[in-house]
Design brief:
There is one protein chain. By secondary structure, the protein is mainly β. It contains no helices and 25 strands.
Length: 305
């Protein structure tokens, strides 16, 4: 052993005179939010590894997961986009905010479970259906959700869950949506709560919550990220990664025609890797996003023995 330090260091070189060249490496996930009325984006992070999961329809509240705390199940927070301090509401990976803003879906891995966490006062509900590898979840109404998961020996599929009794009903065939290496599945819910859009093979398709496949979505590429069903019910917002940022388009569901809605470009591109992931309000006026960053400091250490 050359040197023992309480940070993540990488040995780069050892010189003949005993000097050592090291790098101190740090991976972070940062969160920011902005709107058409704001000149400067706000920092929405909690600790150092913050994922933005959802944003309220009025753009006032974001749902966050911080992976730096809470052990293997992480911690869930809500935070006002005006920069007010984050409020911890429970354990798990946050998935979605209810239409009335009073509840958040969170999933845990150890053990596999689905929780409905209140954003204010109230008791959390916890369900343990015969599913694992939860890939995504969204509210259909305040009392029903759609969740993607796998049962033993089967491929993932989408289910509707009744939050009154925890009952599950499958609404897509096995393998729809396909297994996702990132363990995150995007699901869009129509404003009326009766239809969803999710990945179906190499494309995206619309399903009714009763299980009918309505049809493929024109104009969406496999690189697109599903962001939100727009408030008009006829268009959706999709994100397309671009040069460490994202281009957000509004896409017509009937024609596949897309209109550039917004370019999101981080002010500091240093160390950014991977794709920026965004959420947006149904009117397209307010958004939030997270981005991964890898930074290194270079150290020259002398006097080692």
């Amino acid at each position: 052993m050359i040197l023992q330090v309480p940070v993540d260091m990488t040995l780069q070189d050892v010189f003949p005179d005993g000097r050592v060249l090291l790098t101190g490496d740090k991976i972070s996930i940062e969160a920011f939010g902005g709107s058409s009325s704001q000149v400067k984006e706000r920092d929405l992070g909690v600790l150092g590894l913050t994922q933005v999961s959802d944003i309220s329809p009025d753009g006032q509240l974001v749902v966050l997961t911080d992976f730096e705390a809470g052990g293997s199940n992480y911690l869930v927070y809500v935070r006002k986009i005006d920069g007010s301090p984050p409020v911890r509401i429970g354990e798990g990976t946050a998935r979605a905010l209810s239409p009335d803003g009073r509840s958040v879906i969170a999933t845990t891995y150890m053990p596999p479970s689905i929780s409905i966490l209140p954003t204010g006062t109230g008791e959390a509900k916890r369900f343990t259906p015969d599913l694992f590898e939860y890939g995504g979840a969204q509210f259909l109404t305040n009392d029903r959700i759609v969740v993607v998961g796998s049962s033993a020996g089967h491929s993932p599929r989408a289910y509707v869950m009744d939050l009154k009794d925890g009952s599950l009903k499958p609404i897509t065939p096995e393998g729809v949506p396909p297994r996702n290496e990132e363990a995150i599945v995007s699901i869009l819910v129509a404003p009326d709560g009766k239809r969803i859009i999710l990945r179906d093979g190499d494309s995206f398709a619309e399903y009714s919550v009763s299980g009918e496949r309505i049809g493929a979505i024109p104009g969406v590429s496999k690189e697109d990220q599903l962001l939100r069903w727009a408030s008009d019910g006829k268009t959706i917002f999709v994100g397309n990664p671009k040069n460490h940022g994202s281009r957000i388009f509004r896409l017509d569901l009937s024609t596949g025609r897309r209109e550039l809605w917004r370019d999101i470009t981080p002010s500091d591109p240093a160390g950014i890797f991977g794709n920026l992931a965004a959420v947006i309000t149904p009117d397209g006026k307010t958004y939030a996003y997270n981005l991964p960053r890898f930074m290194s400091d270079l150290y020259l250490v002398e006097g080692l023995k």
